[in-house]
Write a structure and sequence with these properties.
Strand content: 5-15%
Strand order of the largest sheet: 1-2-4-3
Shape: globular
Largest sheet: 4 strands, mixed
Order of helices and strands: HEHHHHEEEHEEHHH
Structural class: alpha/beta
Radius of gyration: 18 Å
Number of domains: 1
Helix content: 40-55%
Distance between the termini: 10 Å
């Protein structure tokens, strides 16, 4: 295996890129605001695009367990206010209405949602030694969404924050796969910090196996990375031919189709070409 994101070398790459980006992000935010923020949080990533110091939002001073689900109502409310105030930077590119992406701050489902998400995390950490090794390098916090629908999102401006929602009746495996999907987005964002990956037009239309339509090349590349992480979990958990509810065929087939579409429409950097080989090998192993 070429080891761009997977295998021992891939684990090393992810851990190194994550640690370096978090260190540099913290240093930059401290310098911009002349404020000694105590530690990295995903909100620091967006600081260069904001018009006022992050200290005014108080998000950087609330402690949490890395990789855990946020359940504190005060913390979630502050996040909700921050996202609303900075909607154009965080939520404007998401499909659907603002209501589709509301945070679960209060309500009867909070406890059960946290329990199910914790079970999904445990499933990942038990079934996949690879995903366990990179988990906290990719996931700093999980923020539950209000609507009872399968959806999730990650954003390069809030690196390490994963937003997840799911139906009231949903299998543990599907929820774990959805979290692995977001881990794939987070991993690719790290890799893109060091290399363009796509040498041709980033906005060239490429068919996305996730959205089932043509999307800009960089978004279809993200879809492939997300599927690759889903495939990795499915195989590590001995569900090799699993058909996720988003697809009508096994995840391995979706990944092969994604790589084929990207290769037909894009030119890649050397690292990007190796990443495509990585994805193909994950689909075949």
């Amino acid at each position: 295996m070429t080891g761009v994101l997977f295998g021992e070398q891939g684990v090393g790459n992810i851990k190194y890129l994550s640690a370096e980006l978090r260190r540099k992000t913290l240093e930059l935010a401290r310098r911009i605001d002349n404020n000694d923020y105590p530690h990295y949080t995903p909100w620091l990533c967006i600081r260069p695009l904001l018009t006022k110091p992050l200290s005014q939002y108080a998000l950087c001073y609330i402690s949490h367990t890395p990789g855990a689900i946020l359940t504190d109502k005060t913390h979630l409310k502050k996040i909700e206010s921050f996202l609303e105030e900075n909607h154009d930077l965080t939520l404007s590119n998401l499909i659907g209405s603002r209501e589709d992406w509301e945070i679960l701050v209060s309500g009867r489902r909070r406890k059960s949602v946290a329990q199910e998400l914790n079970a999904a995390i445990d499933f990942i950490l038990i079934k996949s030694s690879y995903l366990k090794d990179v988990y906290t390098s990719l996931v700093d916090m999980i923020i539950p969404l209000r609507q009872s629908r399968a959806r999730g999102w990650s954003c390069q401006y809030i690196r390490g924050a994963v937003f997840l929602g799911f139906p009231r009746v949903y299998s543990q495996l599907d929820l774990a796969l959805d979290l692995a999907h977001e881990m794939g987005h987070q991993a690719l964002a790290l890799l893109q910090s060091s290399d363009a990956l796509i040498a041709s037009d980033w906005d060239a239309p490429v068919y996305s196996e996730v959205r089932k339509t043509n999307r800009p090349a960089f978004q279809s590349l993200h879809a492939a990375a997300a599927i690759a992480f889903m495939v990795k979990l499915a195989k590590d958990a001995d569900f090799n031919d699993y058909v996720h509810q988003e697809f009508s065929y096994p995840l391995t087939v979706a990944l092969h189709k994604s790589v084929l579409a990207l290769r037909q429409s894009c030119k890649f950097t050397s690292l990007g070409a190796s990443l495509m080989d990585d994805f193909e090998l994950i689909a075949e192993i």
